[in-house]
Design brief:
heterodimer; A: 318 residues; mainly alpha; 16 helices; 2% strand; globular; B: 124 residues; elongated
């Protein structure tokens, strides 16, 4: 009898295990912030702006001009739902844009529609913050600002360099607004704490630069494979990268070897912020590799700019 | 069945009723308007111009809220990488990609531009 019960228990566990695994997987999928962000992108509503209004919008976001609700209230209002959906996503700990499996298969031709949308949504959130603040709703403004910072961090996660740059640029603007709110002297201690908590979560942003470069190099390796397998390599390069290839463009083993050297040098550059070794490796590499590698000096400068802005805001709010 | 006194009285009243002849209707004053033809011509011309402009631009007036163009993002990884590697600055790389996706979607009209596309650029 005991033996039968034991066998039954083993069979029961074997049957139920896949169900538990599916349930676990679906719960993890539901916790993916990127799903909320994709939903927010679909909720975004466009509006026609004159060139002068677009310029004014830029100045408002840059902080050189006050927010004008008469002009931009309707745009912010019509996108409030998209911003609030984004804020729901920002509360989730993980964000996977689903980029890796696509990049593995399609290489350079992987569609990345979220890059442009993510920046526009981040800017809409900034306008949302400024509008709430101008109407005296400090709580709403602080909540949207802290969510926006976490969103910017999510934008930068798990992808190549471009979304990291978008996340960085959003953060620099959000930190500037945080400074303005702190300087106003109107924030309550709870509101300051909300912002401090968000800032503390940005400490891990530093590791995204290295992760992005690793991703970038991995995709370039896949791209070299794809280009190499094509009969017309120059044409394939143009259709995949949107630029004309150099006249003598042809993938060789030397390109792979040079790419490895540059990737190794980039890792050192991002750890000590010294762009010289990677620049030397780029200068010594083939023309093909040279046109594919991001400028290391600019990258180090961007990384340092964000780090400086983050430290300034942290010092101000403490 | 007895008929109530009130009903008899009411019938008697009805018999005394004689309708009065209606007065003639006031004559309709016909106003001859000399500007009717020019107005009709002007309206036709304006309608024609409006139709032509509508077809040329294909967009409603400024400030109108439109749903986001979900196809506005035909950026590929390769194009993003090439932009980052070959643009004069990272900001220019992002703007270049935004411009590339815009050219595939909705052309900018003479005076107006998309708010979302403007927000997606570094240099607004």
């Amino acid at each position: 009898m005991k033996k039968r019960i034991a066998v039954f228990a083993v069979v029961l566990v074997a049957v139920c295990m896949p169900v538990f695994c599916v349930a676990q997987h679906s719960r993890e999928t539901g916790n993916n912030a990127a799903l909320q962000y994709y939903s927010a992108f679909l909720q975004m509503k466009d509006a026609d702006l004159s060139d002068a209004d677009a310029k004014e919008l830029g100045e408002i976001i840059a902080g050189t001009r006050p927010y004008d609700d008469v002009k931009f209230g309707k745009l912010v209002e019509s996108n409030a739902q998209a911003v609030e959906t984004m804020m729901v996503g920002a509360e989730l700990p993980d964000c996977d844009w689903g980029f890796a499996p696509l990049a593995k298969k399609f290489g350079a031709e992987t569609p990345v529609p979220y890059f442009g949308r993510s920046r526009a949504l981040g800017r809409l959130d900034i306008l949302f913050v400024l509008r709430a603040w101008s109407k005296g709703d400090q709580e709403k403004a602080v909540h949207a600002l802290s969510s926006g910072m976490l969103y910017a961090k999510h934008v930068a996660s798990g992808g190549p360099l471009l979304p990291v740059l978008i996340g960085k640029m959003l953060l620099v603007q959000q930190l500037s607004i945080t400074n303005r709110l702190v300087d106003s002297g109107k924030l309550t201690s709870e509101q300051r704490e909300t912002l401090r908590t968000a800032l503390a979560q940005l400490d891990t942003f530093g590791s995204y630069w290295q992760a992005a470069i690793n991703t970038e190099m991995g995709i370039l390796h896949v791209s070299l494979d794809h280009i190499r397998s094509e009969p017309d390599q120059r044409q394939y390069y143009k259709s995949s990268f949107g630029k004309d290839a150099p006249p003598d463009f042809h993938i060789t083993q030397q390109d792979y070897a040079d790419l490895e050297k540059v990737a190794a040098a980039y890792s050192r550059t991002l750890s000590d912020d010294n762009a010289a070794p990677v620049q030397s490796a780029i200068n010594a590499s083939t023309k093909t590799v040279q046109i594919m590698i991001p400028n290391p000096e600019r990258l180090v400068k961007s990384k340092q700019e964000l780090q400086k802005a983050l430290e300034e805001t942290k010092a101000k709010i403490h | 069945m007895q008929i109530p006194d009130d009903d008899r009285q009411f019938e008697a009243e009805l018999r005394r009723f004689a309708p009065r002849a209606a007065e003639p209707l006031p004559p309709i004053r016909i106003i001859r308007v000399r500007w009717r033809v020019p107005v009709a011509v002007a309206a036709t011309v304006l309608a024609a111009i409006g139709t032509i402009l509508w077809h040329m631009h294909g967009t409603p007036g400024p400030g109108t809220v439109l749903p986001a163009d979900v196809s506005a993002g035909e950026v590929t990884l390769g194009r993003a990488q090439a932009a980052v590697a070959q643009s004069p600055s990272f900001e220019a790389a992002i703007d270049g990609l935004e411009q590339a996706s815009r050219s595939r979607t909705k052309p900018k009209t003479h005076k107006n531009q998309s708010a979302l596309q403007a927000l997606g650029r570094e240099e607004l």
